[in-house]
Each structure stands twice: as structure tokens, then as C-alpha cells.
């Protein structure tokens, strides 16, 4: 009888320790090819360290990602600060780890000879932003403008376009300012062949923005979440190196995984939503 109990106990332990398969999505990547290119190496290291399998799940947009989480079609999602706020309101999610990025803040740039030296001087002028609903390219710059005393909805002429068009339009004088992440500004300035670095001036910046965050669905047990937190904390270098395999993920260079992600860390983002007229946090701007 004792031997049978021992065998049964080992079988039960084996079943509990059996590797699991999870569905993993990233909100700013739509296709499987993009997911594999940017996160294939990261997924492999994560699988090696956890002993589990993570299968990519492509979502066409952020709203679809929320619905997939609510219906348990996905188990984990990597998302940005603006998206986190909506996920937290609309779905039952748990924070696993923050994907900390150095110098992650929005900045507002003008030409140094434009005569504009403060945010208030942008009143009535054209300001170019990035994709609608982006934390760093739209919401944070809008908040910066509000923090300096202007109404970003009424006092400026906001346009949305991509980085390259913004940069060229600023140099031509078609717009008065551009709003973008600091790292993107530094890259554009470093690649500039026509103008000296001092040709450009930063007149405002946001606080350092909250981290991108890996979320687990509410159906994922706390023990699994705890296990993943430990994996991220104990394998910082390997996982961070794997994150940089894709071109788009170079923004994470110098990153650090953080386990103590608090919901209150994202209150600054909630203030951004309120500033642009979305106080309910129940849907994504631009969708």
C-alpha cells in the first residue's frame, strides 16, 4: 500500500509540474510574421526558462486583444501604458512584469530659429503628433501641452502623421512643432546631414512614462504569475538580449524587467485620457 501511495504521489507531482501551453499576444504587432521577427528569440528563451510553451496569437487591433483576453483566447499580452489602462478597466488582468525602457519620455521639438521658446507660444500653430492613441506619440505630448497651460484640443492645430513626414515638415516650416519620443528625436538628429544638432530645440517633455507591461489573464493562477515573475527577475540579461533580436524592439535597448508593477504607476496615463476627453478608460482612442 505504501509503495502504491508513493507512486501515486509522484504521478500527481508529475502532473502538476507538467509543462503548459499558453497563448501570447503583443498589441502593437498585427501579423504572425511580425510577431516571429520581433519576439521569436524572446519566446524561445522564455520557453527554455519556464519549461512551458508560448504560442503567438495575432490580434488585428487593441480592441480585439481585450476581447481575446476576456474570452480567454489569449493568456498573456504585452502592451503599452495607454493600452494597460483600458485592459485594466475592461478585462480581468494581472501585472506580471514591467518592460522598463531608459529615457522613455515624450518631447516637443521646434526649430531653434523659429522664435518659439515655450509651449504657450504654440497657441494657434500646427503641431504634428504620431499615431492616434499612442502613449508617447499622442497622449503624453497632449498632456505636456496641457501642463504648460494650453488646451491641446482647442488651442493648437493637431495633425497626425508618421515620424519621417513630421521631421521633413518641421524643417520646411510647414509645421511649428513635432511631438515624439526622445529616443526617436535623438536618432533623427544624429542622422541629420543638412543641419547641425543645435538647429533643433526641445521646449517641453513629459515625465518618464510608465513601462510597457506583460499582463496575464485573470484565469491564470497566481502561482503561474509568481513563477513568471521569478523567471524575469532571474534571467534579466538573457531575456533582454533576446528582446533586441528584432529591429522594432531596439527601443528596448538598455531595458530592465521589473516585478513590482503597481496599478497606480499608470495614473499619469489616466490623466492623459482625461485631458483629451476620454475619462472613462473604456475604449481605445482612434478605434
UniProtKB/TrEMBL annotation:
Natural source organism: Malaciobacter marinus
Signal peptide from the UniProt entry: 1-19
Pfam families linked to this entry: Phosphonate-bd
Entry keywords, A to Z: Signal
Protein name (database record): Phosphonate transport system substrate-binding protein
